[in-house]
Amino acid sequence: MSFTILDLNDTNIRVGSGSQILLNSPGYAVIKDNKIAFGEPAAKLTRIYPRSTHDDFWYRLGQESIQSISSQIRHNADLAYMQLAEIYEQTGKPSSWLIAVPSSFTQEQLGLLLGLLKAASFQDVKLIDSALLASTHALSEGEYLHLDIQLHQSVLTRLESGNKHKVISTEVLPDVGILNIYEHCAKLISHEFINQSRFDPHHNAETEQLLFDKIPDCLKKLTHSSISKVDIQYHAQSHSANISREAILEKISPLYDIIYKTIADSDQLLLSHRFTNLPEFSDRVSNTNILDEFALFTSAKDYSHFLRDTEPDANYLSELPSLATAEKPVSFALENTEQTDITHILIDNTAHLLDGHDCFFTAGHTIEKALSENSHYSVHFSNGYYCIQPENNARVSLNDEVIKQRVQLSIGDRIKTTATKTYSTLIKVK
Predict the structure, then answer these.
(1) In terms of residue numbers, what domain contains 45?
(2) Does residue 175 sit within a domain?
(3) How far apart are CA 94 and CA 3, in angstroms?
(4) Cα separation, 48 vs 210, whole angstroms
(5) Tens digit of pLDDT for each residue in 78-135?
(6) What is the model's pTM?
(7) What does residue 82 show for φ and ψ, rounded to 5 degrees?
(8) 127 bridge partner residues
């Protein structure tokens, strides 16, 4: 029996099983017409209904009374419970769960979380420190500092590794979260729209929402390009502005600096994948290992045998044996071998070598070396796996199912875009 893994970071609560991401659900709740939306649907309403929006219920998880326009909501724990219940239903009611919890949770919050999970019908639940679980493959002898970011704060987790890996301390940096970064970016981008196209996205709630929806992709593009073009379509009119990396960095560098000062003396830094979408953040940090976005799920597979054998009353794990001493399940090794057998992608009867470099594909499956406005999807190699990721909000199908985020690939997988009737297929060439 394998675990379904829940990565409880409110920037994007991820649920995974095996090599597949089942669900992404950021920690937003919006109350409208006596109904409550969570996750991605709620994220697209936060600027339209700001007084009906809750985005700090995981950050401030507790049972203190809060202001709400809904009689169903008395405190943040009510919202957390409702989102957990929705996740449980949407993922098919799995029977066994491993919940990866940030080190920022207090003992009181961990106890409350266990109660909420039970109330939401989660069965056979184990809690584990998310920084510890994500870091295991990067650890050897010594001390490490793991850095992650949430909606409202950043979290530093100090780890110690020897015969065992364990959490030894935690530090929280309040007000240095994704939302604060987005707020700074929104001010700049709005200013550039006014200067370049005489259009103010902050003029009404709908265009302000469209602006905030564009910020993540804008920042992602600025990690590898000096300019990102932001387009907003509203009332059959198109407005655009070119945003420079230099201007964005001038806005958000003060937030970066708060983190830099805290990690200045760190010998070995493990950086969450969430920072890879923030331009130039890692460039000023030495001795850094950037963790893959699947690192947490890969470690969960590696430790699945050990985790199944832990005592039921071990409600929160902040210590793991080293990988050398933890027995690895045979099923994981076989699955890993299968994944790395991919050698080529077959397009129109021509096999193109996948040599471990990132590849970007147009709607017609033409291969490009860099991300562009024509890119519909990309294929990446990381930790022994090839993965596919949609680009530029393109509609891409994997095995005839539309994907919205990065997914691991297997031999025989078929990729299709809306612009062509043909598939590209992952194959092995001996």
Answers:
(1) 4-134+294-321
(2) no
(3) 8
(4) 10
(5) 999 999 999 999 999 999 999 999 999 999 999 999 999 999 999 889 999 999 999 9
(6) 0.77
(7) -65, -40
(8) 99, 316
